[in-house]
Design brief:
heterodimer, A: mainly alpha, flat, B: mainly alpha, four-stranded mixed beta sheet, two-stranded antiparallel sheet, 60% helix, globular, Oligosaccharyl transferase stt3 subunit (chain B), transferase (chain B)
Chain lengths: 126, 754
C-alpha cells in the first residue's frame, strides 16, 4: 500500500528531486521489507481496492440496504486497520514501539480482534 | 539507611504474599461496603421499584418478544415500540443475570434482580476503578480510589438499591472501558482495544451518556498526536477500538446509523482518519530520507485534513450528517434549552449545579481533586494526559448539569486518591535521607548551631543503625523527618478520612435513600413519619378504576402510574414525543372549556395531580406548572403564553393576586379545589409557596374529584362524560347546583378520604 498510493498523488509535481526520492522509496521498500511484511501489504492493497469499489458502488449505484453497506465497508476498513496494526507490530522498522509484545501474541491478538469484528459485521449485514 | 521509626524484620517473600492477600481482602471488603451502603432504602422501607415492566417482559417471554414488544398502554393513544425507543442494555443485563441465576438453580425473582442490580454493579465499579487507578499510579492508590468511589455520595445518588436506572450499570461500564483503553494504549494491543470496544458497545446499549466516551477517547488520541507522542501503539489501540466499537454501537436499534450520521460522532471518525494518515506518512518517511519529500508528505497530510473537513462541512450543510442536537447545544449554552427545548430544561436534573452540591456529593475529595490533577501534570505519561482531559471536560459538564455530577465523580475519586496517597506515602516513608554536610556548613552562625544538632543526630543515628535500628525512633525527635511532623500531617489526614466516611454515610442515609415514592419526615420530637401518599393513590387507581382507564398526569409520574397502578398513561418519563407532552401541558394550562375537548379526544378518564401545598412538599405540580406552560407554548404559541400566568408585576403567584388565566387553568383548579375548606374559614395557607389561597370556592364543571390521598399530595379527578341530555356540562352542573344547593359538591366525591 505504501508503494501504490504515493506515485498517484505526486504525479502533478514534476520536480526531479521528487522523482528520485520516489524511486528511492521504491528501492528502499524492495530492499528492506521482509517477505511476510510484503505479504501483509498485498492483503492491505486488496482491502483498499475492495473498500474503494464498495464506496464507489454506494455513491454511483445505490446505498439501499444501508446497514449491509455499512457492515461490509466497516468490516473492510476494520480488517484493514487490524492488519495494518499487525504489520506495525511485526515489521522491523516499527517493532521498536512494541517491546513487550511477542510476534506470536501480536498474531493471536489480531485473530481475536478480527473474529469479534466479523461477528459484529455479520450481525449487522442483516 | 536511616529510618524514622523501627521497621519489623520480615522477609521479602512474606511482604509480597501478605500484601497480595491484603489487597484482595481490602478490595473485597470495599466492594461489600459499596453494596451495603446502598441498601438503606431497602432495609428502611421495602424494595420498591417501578418502571421495570420491559425487563419483566424480557424475563418472561424471552429476548425476541422484548425486542418486538409494542406497549399499547404507554403514550396513549400512540403506544410505544419499546425495543426501538429504549437503551436495552439495562434490561438485557438484568435479563442475563436472571437467566444465569436460574440456570444455576437460584430461583430469584426478576424484581429482586432489578432491585439489587445497581448495588452489585457499584461493587464492580469499585474494582474497575481500582484497576484503572493502578494503571495511573501504584496499587495502594488504587485501593484508596476504590474505597472513595465505593461510598462517595455523588455516585450513590444514582445507584441505591431499587433505583433501576441506566446509570446504575453505566458508570461501571464507563470506568471499565476507560481502563481497557488505557491498557490498550500502554501495551499497543489490538486485543485490549477490541475488549474496550466490546465494553463500549455494552455502554452504548446501556446509556445515552456513551457519547462522552465517544468523544473522550478520540480527544485523548488527538492530544497525544498533537503532543508529538504518536506511535503505532496508539494507532493499533485506537483503530481497533474505533472500528469494532462503531460496528458494535450500530447494533443497538435506538442508535442505528447515528455513528455515521450525527455530528457528535464525527470527532471519533475524524481522529480515526487522522491516525491513518499519520501512520501512513510515518511508514513512508522511514523509507525515504529526502527533505523535500518530507515537506510534501506534510503538505499531503494538511491537504487531506482540509479536504476531509470540507467534505464534513458540505455533508452537514446538505443535511446528510445531522448537526449537533439540542441536548448538546444546551451543554455549551446553558440558556439555550430554556428558550428552544423547554422539555430538557424542565428536568430538575438538567439545571446547572449549585456550588454546595459539589461539597455535598464529593466532600473532601473536591479539594484534593486539583492536587491530583497537578500530580498528573508532574508525571504526564500518556495515561496521565487522559486523566487531565477527563478532569477538564467533566468539571465543565458537572458545572453545567446536576445530572453530570455522576460523570465527574470517578475522576475526582481517582485524582483525589492520587493526591492522598502521595501525601501518605511521603509522610509514612520511614527512610531519612542523609544530610549533606558541605551544604550545611557553608552558612553562618545560625548554621553552626544547626550543624551541631545535625551532627548530634547523625552520631545518634549511626549509633542507632549500629544497634540494629531498635532505637531508631528515639533518635530523631524534631525536624521535618521526625515523628512529630509525621503525626502532624498523618493524623489530620486520617481524621479527614473518618469524617469522609461519616459524611458519606449520613448523606446516603438522609438524602439519597428514600425511594421517590415514599417520603420520610421527622416530627419535632424526632419521631419519623412515613408519607406514603403516592402508593396509596396508585393502589386506589389499581383497585377502583377499570383496567383500561386512561390516566393523564405530568410525565414525571408516567412510569410510576404504569408500573404501580398498571393503567395506561398519556406521557411518561421516556420523553421522546415533545408534542404529546405539550398536549398534556396544554390541557393542564387551559381553562376547562378548552381542556375538556382535549381530554375527551384522548379518552382521558382520570387526571392525577401532585399537590404539596398542605404538607409543604415542594416538588409538586404547581411548581412544575410553568414548565408545562412553556412546553405547550413551544407548540401552540398562539394559545398559551407564559406571561399570562404571571401577575401584573411579573410574579408567579397563586394567592388572590394570581392572574385570571392562572386561576382558570385546570391545574390551579385541581390543585386548590376545596383546599380552603380544610382550614374551616381560617386563612388557607399554601405551605410550599407561603401564600394565602382565596376563600372563594372553585367551581369544577367538566371533571369531578375522585380521590385525594391522606396528605393531599396526590389528587385524582374523574373526567365527566358528555351530559346524557346533551346539555353543555357547565349548564348541567349549574342546573344540578340550582336543584340541590346545600349538598352541591361533597355528594359527588364519593371515594374521598380526608
Amino acid at each position: 500500500m505504501a508503494v501504490t498510493k504515493t506515485p498517484a498523488k505526486s504525479t502533478d509535481t514534476s520536480a526531479s528531486a521528487l522523482q528520485s526520492s520516489i524511486s528511492t522509496l521504491v528501492q528502499n521498500y524492495r530492499a528492506t521489507t521482509l517477505t511476510r511484511t510484503k505479504l501483509i501489504d498485498c492483503f492491505l492493497l486488496v482491502l483498499v481496492v475492495s473498500g474503494v469499489l464498495q464506496f464507489a458502488y454506494r455513491i454511483l449505484v445505490t446505498s439501499y440496504p444501508f446497514n449491509a453497506f455499512l457492515g461490509s465497508f466497516g468490516g473492510t476498513v476494520g480488517q484493514f486497520v487490524l492488519l495494518a496494526g499487525l504489520r506495525a507490530q511485526t515489521a522491523p522498522d516499527t517493532i521498536g514501539d512494541f517491546k513487550g509484545t511477542s510476534q506470536e501474541r501480536a498474531f493471536a491478538e489480531f485473530c481475536a480482534a478480527s473474529i469479534v469484528l466479523h461477528l459484529f459485521m455479520y450481525n449487522f449485514l442483516g | 539507611m536511616a529510618v524514622a521509626y523501627p521497621i519489623p524484620h520480615v522477609s521479602k517473600q512474606t511482604v509480597t504474599n501478605t500484601s497480595a492477600l491484603l489487597k484482595f481482602t481490602i478490595l473485597a471488603v470495599i466492594s461489600a461496603a459499596a453494596i451495603a451502603s446502598r441498601l438503606f432504602a431497602v432495609i428502611r422501607h421495602e424494595s420498591i421499584i417501578h418502571e421495570f415492566r420491559a425487563t419483566k417482559v424480557l424475563a418472561k417471554d424471552g429476548f425476541y418478544e422484548f425486542w418486538n414488544w409494542f406497549d399499547p398502554t404507554a403514550w396513549y393513544p400512540l403506544g410505544r415500540v419499546v425495543g426501538g425507543t429504549v437503551y436495552p442494555g439495562l434490561m438485557v443485563t438484568s435479563g442475563i443475570i436472571y437467566n444465569v441465576l436460574h440456570w444455576l438453580n437460584f430461583p430469584v425473582d426478576i424484581r429482586n434482580v432489578c432491585v439489587m442490580l445497581a448495588p452489585a454493579f457499584s461493587g464492580l465499579t469499585a474494582i474497575a476503578t481500582y484497576l484503572f487507578t493502578c494503571e495511573m499510579a501504584d496499587e495502594s492508590t488504587g485501593l484508596l480510589a476504590a474505597a472513595f468511589i465505593g461510598i462517595v455520595p455523588g455516585y450513590i445518588s444514582r445507584s441505591v438499591a431499587g433505583s433501576y436506572d441506566n446509570e446504575a450499570i453505566a458508570i461501571f461500564l464507563l470506568m471499565y472501558t476507560f481502563y481497557l483503553w488505557i491498557r490498550a494504549v500502554k501495551q499497543g494491543s489490538a486485543f485490549y482495544g477490541m475488549l474496550a470496544a466490546v465494553f463500549y458497545g455494552w455502554m452504548v446499549a446501556a446509556w445515552g451518556g456513551y457519547v462522552f466516551i465517544t468523544n473522550m477517547i478520540p480527544l485523548h488520541a488527538f492530544v497525544l498526536v498533537l503532543m508529538g507522542r504518536f506511535n503505532h501503539k496508539i494507532y493499533i489501540s485506537y483503530s481497533s477500538w474505533y472500528v469494532i466499537g462503531t460496528l458494535a454501537s450500530m447494533q443497538v436499534p435506538f442508535v442505528g446509523f447515528l455513528p455515521v450520521r450525527t455530528s457528535e460522532h464525527m470527532a471519533a471518525l475524524g481522529v480515526f482518519g487522522l491516525l491513518q494518515l499519520v501512520a501512513f506518512v510515518e511508514t513512508v518517511r522511514k523509507l525515504v530520507p529526502g527533505k523535500q519529500f518530507q515537506l510534501l508528505l506534510r503538505a499531503f497530510v494538511i491537504a487531506s485534513f482540509v479536504i476531509a473537513f470540507a467534505v464534513l462541512v458540505v455533508l452537514t450543510s446538505s443535511g446528510w450528517i445531522a448537526p449537533w442536537t439540542g441536548r448538546f447545544y444546551s451543554l455549551w449554552d446553558t440558556g439555550y434549552a430554556k428558550i428552544h427545548i423547554p422539555i430538557i430544561a424542565s428536568v430538575s436534573e438538567h439545571q446547572p449545579t449549585a456550588w454546595p452540591s459539589f461539597f455535598f456529593d464529593l466532600e473532601m475529595l473536591i479539594f484534593l481533586f486539583p492536587a491530583g490533577v497537578y500530580l498528573c501534570f508532574r508525571e504526564l505519561r500518556d495515561e496521565h494526559v487522559f486523566i487531565i482531559i477527563y478532569a477538564v471536560l467533566s468539571s465543565y459538564f458537572a458545572g453545567v448539569m446536576v445530572r453530570l455530577m455522576l460523570v465527574i465523580t470517578p475522576v475526582v475519586c481517582v485524582t483525589a486518591a492520587m493526591a492522598f496517597s502521595k501525601l501518605l506515602t511521603t509522610y509514612l516513608d520511614p527512610t531519612v535521607p542523609e544530610i549533606d554536610d558541605d551544604s550545611a556548613s557553608v552558612t553562618g552562625d545560625l548554621a553552626a548551631e544547626v550543624d551541631a544538632t545535625i551532627n548530634k543526630t547523625k552520631t545518634k543515628k549511626s549509633a542507632a543503625v549500629d544497634t540494629k535500628k531498635t532505637v531508631g525512633a528515639a533518635a530523631i525527635k524534631r525536624g521535618i523527618y521526625s515523628l512529630d511532623t509525621r503525626f502532624l500531617v498523618v493524623l489530620p489526614l486520617i481524621g479527614s478520612l473518618i469524617m469522609f466516611v461519616y459524611h458519606c454515610t449520613w448523606v446516603t442515609s438522609n438524602a439519597y435513600s428514600s425511594p421517590s415514592v415514599v417520603l420520610a419526615s421527622r416530627g419535632a420530637d424526632g419521631s419519623q413519619h412515613i408519607i406514603d401518599d403516592f402508593r396509596e393513590a396508585y393502589y386506589w387507581l389499581r383497585q377502583n378504576t377499570k383496567q383500561d382507564a386512561v390516566v393523564m398526569s405530568w410525565w414525571d409520574y408516567g412510569y410510576q402510574i404504569a408500573g404501580m397502578a398498571d393503567r395506561p398513561t398519556l406521557v411518561d418519563n421516556n420523553t421522546w414525543n415533545n408534542t404529546h407532552i405539550a398536549t398534556v401541558g396544554k390541557a393542564m394550562a387551559s381553562n376547562e372549556a378548552v381542556a375538556y375537548p382535549i381530554l375527551r379526544q384522548h379518552d382521558v378518564d382520570y387526571i392525577l395531580v401532585i399537590f404539596g401545598g398542605l404538607l409543604g412538599y415542594s416538588g409538586d405540580d404547581i411548581n412544575k406548572f410553568l414548565w408545562m406552560v412553556r412546553i405547550s407554548q413551544g407548540v401552540w404559541p398562539d394559545e398559551i403564553q407564559e406571561s399570562n400566568y404571571f401577575t401584573n408585576r411579573g410574579e408567579y403567584k397563586v394567592d388572590a393576586q394570581a392572574s385570571q388565566t392562572m386561576k382558570d387553568s385546570l391545574m390551579y383548579k385541581m390543585s386548590y379545589y376545596r383546599f380552603p375548606e380544610l382550614f374551616g374559614g381560617g386563612q388557607a395557607v399554601d405551605r410550599v409557596r407561603n401564600q394565602v389561597i382565596p376563600n372563594t370556592p372553585i367551581q369544577l364543571d367538566t371533571i369531578e374529584e375522585a380521590f385525594t390521598s391522606e396528605n393531599w399530595i396526590v389528587r385524582i379527578y374523574q373526567v365527566k362524560k358528555e351530559d346524557d341530555l346533551g346539555r353543555e356540562l357547565p349548564a348541567a352542573s349549574a342546573f344540578n347546583a340550582g336543584q340541590r344547593l346545600k349538598k352541591s359538591k361533597s355528594a359527588k366525591s364519593t371515594n374521598k378520604k380526608r
